[in-house]
C-alpha cells in the first residue's frame, strides 16, 4: 500500500510540474493578434465595412469584409464578372488564415452585397479604378502592405489600377486573365471552341449568330460542355456551395453591358470590346504574380508571356486548373500565392522563378 501511495504522490507532483511548465510557456510565448479585432472599429460588425464611394451620380456604399490582422500583408480581392461577388473567393478562408495573411472581401458597386444604383454610366473601367482607390484609402492600404489580387474581370481591373496607381502597391496578382480581349477571343475561337463536341459547338455558334442567347438550350450547352471543362472542372452537382451562391448572385445587367452574352468573347457593343493593355505591361514595375491554368478559358501561354513582359513578375501555372483554379487546382494555386506574398514581404522576390510548385 505504501508503494502505491508513493507512486500516486510522485505522479501527482509530475502532473503539477507539467501544468506549471505549460502555463509558464504560454505566458512567455507571444500570442498571435491575427484574429484579434478588439481594438478595431469593425469589431461590432465582424470585420464588415460599408465604404462610401463618391461618384458623379452620387455617393453609394460598397461592402467589404476583412479577415485577420497583418500590418504588412493585406490582400484586397477583386472578383470577376463584371457583376460577380466576393463569394468566388470564399475558399481563401481555408488557406490564408493559417499563414496569417490578412485579406479583404469586396463587392464592387452594383454587385450583390453593395449598393445598386443600376446606372450604366458608372459601368466603366475608369469608374471601377477610382472605386478601388477610394476603398484603398478607406482601409488604410499602402505601398508597405497593399497586395491587389484580381481574377477574371477583376484581373482587368487590377491591371488598370496598377497602370494608374502602382505607387500604392506592394504587390500585384493577376489571376486567370489575359491583357488583351482580342487575344482572348482568338484563343476561344481557335482553340477552346473546336475542342467541344462538333455538334455541340455547331449548335452553340448557330444560336450566337442569331443572337439567340436567351434560349435555355444555349445556357444548358454552355454549362454542361464548356463550364465543366474550362470554368470549374467538376461535375456541376459537386460545385461548392459558395460558387453556386456566387452564380445566383451575379448581376446580369452589368455583366451583359460590359462583357456581353457569349462565353467565347465580348459580344455586340459591350464596353470591354477591344480592351488591350498588352503594350503597357512593361510600365508596371511592382512585383507581380501572373496565375494561369492549363484548362482555363484564358490562354496559359499568353499569360506566361505576360509575366515576361512585366519587369518584375513570376508565372504560376495550375496544371489541373481551369478559370476557377483556386478551387480545381487548389494546392498549386495557394502554395504559389502564399510563396509570392511571403517572398515579397521577406525581400526575397526573384523574377520568373517558377511555373508551378
From TrEMBL:
Residues 75-329 form the AB hydrolase-1 domain. The keyword Signal applies. GO terms for molecular function: hydrolase activity. The keyword Hydrolase applies. Keywords: Hydrolase, Signal. It comes from the Bacteria. Residues 1-19 form the signal peptide. InterPro entries: AB_hydrolase_1, AB_hydrolase_fold, AB_hydrolase_sf, Peptidase_S33, Pro_imino_pep. Gene3D superfamilies: alpha/beta hydrolase. PANTHER family: MONOACYLGLYCEROL LIPASE. Belongs to the peptidase S33 family. This is Proline iminopeptidase-family hydrolase. It comes from Arenibacter arenosicollis.
